[in-house]
Specification:
mainly alpha, 2 helices, 70% helix, elongated
Length: 87
Amino acid sequence: MRNGLTILLALLVLAILALPESASACTACYGASDSPLAKGMNMGILFLLGVIGSVLVGITAFFIFVARNSARLAAAAQSQIPTDKQS
């Protein structure tokens, strides 16, 4: 059973590699770079990069906010601890 699955997988990989159309690059990487399709795809890529960048900036800002509040609360708690030097 295992041997048959390996042979089937090897034949599937060879069939995919034998089809040159399936290995063609998209218009953003290959082809007419001044076509409207390529320009639209490039704008889509830039938009998605902007979305990902803004999400990463938001996550970073949240963790900086949490770290600053944690340090501020720790300093306030440290200043409110009574000392035993009064006795």
